Amino acid sequence: MASSHRLRVMTYNVKGLQVSRPDAVAVVRAAAPDVLGVQEPTRGLLGWWRMWLFARAVGMRAVVNGRGARTTALLVAPGRAVTAHSAVRLPNLSGRTRRGAAVATVDGIRFVVVHLSLVRDERAAHLADLLAHHVPTTRTVVLGDLNEAPGGPTWASLTRLLTDADPTGGPTFPAVEPKQRIDAILTTRDLTAGSPRVLSDPSALRGSDHRPLLVDLYLPGAS
Q: pTM, whole model, 2 decimals?
């Protein structure tokens, strides 16, 4: 008899927890994701430690944090099996922010957390590298801050291979009076995403300059 395995997945640009850490914590705790892709995690000499403390505060563990992941991190809820994880360094082509990606396999599904460049050519180069080497054609989720609105070349490249989990979703940036949908969760065709929602409660408006996106992900399987 067929059954479904559900994972609650969230992407959230926390802006270094510089806007309101208590509200960012409240947002994540209320949403209770199984997998949280973070963009703009805390950085600097003790950035990894501050992100570890944030993970503990929201009841999760940081499985990719710091090092080559740079502008991303990946947190996982207790009870979820992590069988592989890595921090992927991306080349600095623009001379601006040095970027990376967080990659982990959670309950048999690969998650690739991205925070793509503001510079179009660099964004394209990083995306091409990630799609070629880190995004398989099955059981994979790409989530994060694309720094581009739907209709642009980044979205076109991603949606040739993946399905947008929230194609009619509302804007995510800025958090107050948002105008652009630049945060996304995309899945391979063998996964089904349901109940997408851009969070807009008071804590979400105060916690960062982005609104988080949350979806329930289903993996069909045999019971």
A: 0.94
